[in-house]
Amino acid sequence: MDPFRGKAQEKDEWNLSPTVTYRHVHSPQSAGVHNPLRIIGLIDMDAFYAQCEQRRLDIDPTLPVVVLQWDSLIAVNYPARKFGIARMTKLKEAQKMCPNLVVVHVATYKDGENEAKYHPNPDNKSYKVSLDLYRRESTKIINIFKSTLPTAEVEKASVDEAFIDFTVPVQQILVERYPELAAPTPSSSYHMDSELPLPPLDISWHPSCNLVPIGPEEEGKEGEEDSSTSASGTSTSKQVVTWQDVALSIGAELLFKVRNEILQNLGYTTSAGIARNKFLAKLVASYRKPASQNVLANAAIPHYLKSMPFQKIRFLGGKLGAVLAEEYEAKTVADLLSIDLTEMQTKFGPDSIWVYQVLRGIDHSEVKEKPPVNKSMLASKNLPTPIRKDGDTLQWIRVLCAELAVRLNEAREAGTVWPKTIALHTKQVGESAPRSKQAPFPFVRELTGDVIVAAAMKLWKELHGTDAERATNPNAPNMKIINIAIAFTGVEALEQGQRGIEGFFGPNLPGPSKTRPNIGQIAEDPTPEEDTEISVDYTCPKCSKTISVSVQRDDDAEMRAARIHAVKAEHEDFHFAQELSRQDKLVIGGGKRRRSPGPGTVKKRKKDDGILGYFQKK
Ligand code: CTP
Ligand code: CA
Ligand code: CA
Fold it and tell me: In this structure, which CATH number among 1.10.3720.10, 3.40.50.150, 1.20.1050.10, 1.10.150.20 belongs to the domain 307-367?
């Protein structure tokens, strides 16, 4: 079946100009993702890390700059790209290609320092990379999106990009600008589900817009390959204007406004795409770069997609793409349009409707801000020299914990969040799965790296024992750890129970007192003044058992917290284990205890999982 055989069929297949009614304008949410006036943008920062470093160091934006992580380039700014330098280029090579190249190494954490710094000659053997600067800038960017467009939905998609659903603010402007779109009144000759009157004959596109051409005759006008039609005041296309086009042009104005806010406030240039859905917005965002605003009107969708090598499409670049390419000897989207939905679903399972739709530029996924629940923070290091003995461990745990402390404290500046658990993951040569161990992470008012170190070291001992223990255990394999990661999971607003112990850990730690502990709280035990050890009690809220914890008198608040935490965590582990055996989900293997899916176990999802799922379901 040829989807382009007839005009009517093409319209139907691509869903290019569905009927627009007053209801679509006046209650945009009612039709949700099916609203024909849906306008979605994707903003992506140009050479993001490079721009962050340029701003930090106040480097002239026209100079060629690369950002280095050890000896790999991780960001290349556009002036440097003019010399042919790309992300894959070796540093030495890049410096030959461009002798004046400005090279900035990312900040790194060094053992013993509690913040990342720009060290002169960091090396992978003893430093850990910090991406804190980029994360912070990312947060500022998202906040500007939200404050500039309070009625738009903003979804952060990665460190340097976000989707914006412009539908609601666009429709507000639409009804202000076009009085003929006023809502029906009882005396109106039309009602909410009536089709809108004819749209204006012309549109003025914001001058920043690159309009993707609707057909080959529009292409190459400026003598350039793959040239788009640059907006020049009015609509350049011969196509009849639709209300979708009008909405898109208003969306493009808002898109420019928000991109300009980023430029004015933070000094960053961005590239953006705007279209009827997320998939197309993301795709068209890279149509022209940098500092560009690419607009894909509905009428331009078929021409734009048909010539596209389909394996360039996200999620079609992997195994599924390879299978499709082979099965249909296909290269472009057009080559796959002959597969009808039945055939697609018979071959690749019912979920492959997703592929069928994406090839036609249809995507009903929502732009939705991810709720900040169950957030996790993970600091990880691939070890150039494996950890083989206890003595190798602490330096890396300290470096990872310093990073987590910075990140958690930053998150706490924005809101009173706290992690529920801390988890340690290690990957060992010869073991297929990483080992993981987690424990609750109790609240402390002053969070430092050392508090986290104490908790992480305890997990380390539980996971790997000590040199002495391993030496006496004939079954213990030689330790050879090549990756170590520490994660906070369930980072969210503090719960009442967690806050309850805050007083104890505060800087003005009260002296020993006679009070007995309350359930779920920690209190001190009566202990003679002169003792160097103080005993404090912890009462478990689950079983009401009271456990005494010894702390040193000269321990600071953090150290006490860590010691108490260790005991508390151990006791909670006991409950955890009990619960596991009750649920009969305990998996014993390789000397480690796992539950599937375990709370707080950070399972790294392979990028292709979703698509492979299609095959598996088949
Ligand atoms: N990044 C990375 N490693 C990768 C991909 C990306 O470290 N394999 C980092 C880059 O340093 C980059 C940021 O993530 O600055 C955003 O990535 P991306 O948008 O893909 O590239 P940019 O460098 O921003 O370049 P572009 O202008 O092409 O978007
Ligand atoms: Ca980018
Ligand atoms: Ca990006």
Answer: 1.10.150.20
